[in-house]
Amino acid sequence: MRLLPLVAALGLCFAATTACAQTTLTPAPAPKLDPANTLILELKSGKVTIELLPALAPKHVERVKQLAKDGFYNGIKWHRVIPGFMAQSGDPTGTGTGGSKYGNLSAEFTPTPFRRGVVGAARSASKDSANSQFFIMFAETPGLNGEYTAWGRVIDGMTFVDGIAKGQPPATPDIIVKAYLASDAK
Hints:
The protein is α+β, with helices and mostly antiparallel strands. The chain has helices at 3-25, 58-70, 158-162, and strands at residues 38-43, 46-52, 78-82, 86-89, 118-121, 134-137, 150-156, 178-181. It has an 8-stranded antiparallel beta sheet with strand order 3-4-6-5-7-2-1-8.
């Protein structure tokens, strides 16, 4: 007769586990992005949505916003695209040596891991030399953690980033057709 309470208890556990499993399998709604902190990169293959992270790198985010408002990134080449590592753009000369008319930025390093989809500020050997260039990670690269400024992350469109022509520089570089903040979309 003690078997009945055990069976009942197992039934309750099974029901609770099933309900729990169903709850965890249901995807959570995507967080609502702040349009003023959402950068859109239009590539020839589609749109890439980047969440800007001012809590991590306020000076870098402000610079990216200013450059997007200026139209600086429109038509800029992806000049360094290394499979399994990252895609780099933001140089008006297309050589990896140029920058904007604004001065260089001081580093805003955080322990943020450089994983797939993280967007960081490109720089020279000097830690305080970031200006307009940036890169989007294809894969996790722990060696960059704490050594480069992370200022955003791709929320949508990473498959379009994956399709950017590879090379250093690519034989036929892809470009950023247009870059703008979601709050400025028309």
